[in-house]
Design brief:
single chain, alpha/beta, Rossmann fold, 7-stranded mixed β-sheet
């Protein structure tokens, strides 16, 4: 049986080692967009909030700190376990973004911090978010900026293109950077029934402490990049590593780095 994109993503995020590595190596970056995300969703004291693809629960925890009533959902049992441990005052459940296990019209806000790029059918999530939101409720989600903007991804993709291959047998899925394009986000949300969609850029900087941390991050703390790198010919691996670090050399200061990694933040209202 051919592995589906969902199965591939689920297997990756079910792996405790990947979850811990992502949390250890990238949470200092991914949490930078949470305050703008919650602002865009109108999250405040008393809001009833759903955090989809909650991961280790950071957006849910930040919504709790604002006095919101928060539920987090993730398709990874391991991520749900980590979130429950970190933020016991929130409710966390295992479930799928394309078939949310909640009644209709119960949430004031639905947020997803870097979740949409992992969904096999993002449009199903948008329709589900519309369904579970109250009239006047807000959807807000973040994705990474384009590879030209988000320099780590540009470096990795450029290195693989130069010294390896992107065609390594991974199951096909949506373009990871599709919703970095404002027109694509606006059209998808309008199709799901939302109105007044806006897309803004959130400046962010990743600060790995060494070149070793950069390579460890892409090889252990991601799913698509990790899978693509694992399937390269062994003789290409050193050249790919060197090319990644060469591309990020302008971001280096001493041993550490300051890597631009902006987010695209989309928000819209359910009429």
């Amino acid at each position: 049986m051919t592995e589906s994109f969902r199965d591939f993503e689920h297997a990756g995020w079910a792996d405790p080692h990947v979850c811990v590595s992502y949390d250890d190596l990238l949470s200092s970056l991914t949490t930078q967009s949470i305050a703008p995300l919650l602002d865009a969703a109108g999250v405040k004291a008393g809001s009833v909030v759903l955090d989809v693809a909650t991961g280790a629960g950071y957006a849910a925890g930040a919504a709790l700190a604002r006095g919101a009533h928060v539920t987090g959902v993730d398709f990874s049992a391991e991520q749900v376990r980590m979130a429950k441990q970190r933020f016991p005052a929130a409710s966390f459940v295992e479930g799928d973004a394309g078939s949310l296990p909640f009644a209709s019209a119960v949430f004031d806000a639905v947020v997803a911090n870097y979740g949409v790029l992992h969904f096999p059918e993002p449009e199903r999530f948008f329709r589900e978010a519309f369904r579970v939101l109250k009239s006047g409720g807000r959807l807000a989600f973040t994705v990474w900026g384009s590879p030209q903007e988000a320099k780590l991804f540009g470096a990795v993709l450029g290195a693989i293109d130069a010294h390896g291959s992107m065609d390594v047998g991974l199951p096909g899925g949506p373009n990871m950077f599709l919703f970095a394009d404002a027109s694509a986000s606006e059209a998808a949300l309008a199709s799901a029934g939302f109105k007044d969609a806006t897309v803004t850029r959130v400046p962010q900087t990743w600060r790995p402490s060494s070149s070793e941390q950069i390579l460890l991050t892409v090889k252990t703390g991601t799913v698509r990049m990790r899978g693509t790198l694992q399937r390269q010919h062994i003789e290409a691996l050193d050249a790919i590593d060197d090319a990644i670090l060469t591309a990020l050399e302008p971001c280096r200061s001493g041993r550490s780095y300051e890597v631009p990694m902006p987010a695209a933040l989309t928000a819209a209202t359910r009429p």
